[in-house]
Amino acid sequence: MQYRTLGRTGLKVSAVGYGAWAIGGKMWGAQDDKDALDAISRAWDLGCTFYDTAAVYGDGHSEELIGRFVKETGHRPAIATKVPPKNYEWPARKGTPLKEAFPKAWIIEQTEESLRHLGLDCVDLQQLHVWNDEWTDQDEWYEALAKLRDQGKVRFFGISLNSHDPDSGVRVAQSGRVDAFQVIYNIFEQAPEDRLFPAVQKHKVGVLARVPFDESSLTGKLTKATTFPPGDFRAGYFSGGRLAATVDRVEALRWLVPGHAASMPEAALRFCLSHEAVSTVIPGIRNPWQAQQNLGAADAGPLSPEALQRLKAHRWDKKE
Predict the structure, then answer these.
(1) pTM tops 0.90, yes or no
(2) Which residues contact 112 (CB under 8 A, 6 or more apart)?
(3) Given a cut of 90, is residue 187 above it in pLDDT?
């Protein structure tokens, strides 16, 4: 495993972290808790020291599983979680008042609830789970997180940016108010390179690259006939012709294997790690086999300059 520093925090994190959304169950279909705990443990054994969860992942169940691992093993990875917006709207809509999404009391209450789920006194990184650039200059959200930090309940804080809207983080990066961003970044979603990454590098803000597999398409396993289990959010994500269009785009990437990587998932993760702005990439991991496959990508290093140059032509700017 390779390790990187999370922005200016000084926190050392594994280059490949653990995305814990799916193990919460519900929106990714059924999940066996034993598989999840075995996966968390296997990831740790392979050098993973960064685990990202959220209050809404399985209504706190994902947090509980991470906390159970810590309690039962005594291991203490860096743990990140997220405050859901009070109005439970994803993404944050323009014009939404801050008080409807992140009033001070709500941020504090939800953080304390997450700490109870985790069984911890302090979380390493607390994040707001959506963002609206209109909130950048308002103080209430920042005052709440700063208070939690001063109380020793969070070490650092950041923002999980809206899907397909990386530029909304530029002004916050410049303000110096956040330690990290979580942003969609993958072979298709290259827009963070335009403005966000230069800003975070200048202001030493960490980056958690999420959705490295484009909600599983970049594993190369989907076909135009793929169906998803009841309750799986991907049924909606890939609706309206997007599944067929996505599969065609993935097929156009098959030159990556074996020419530049051992597998499509490895190529997808190594793409994210090829940019020096990225502190860690957080693929979803549901079982020990996925832990083994995903965490090994760090040791393979960045993709070649030739591959990265060719991949620029595969950029796909989505709006939703």
Answers:
(1) yes
(2) 153
(3) yes
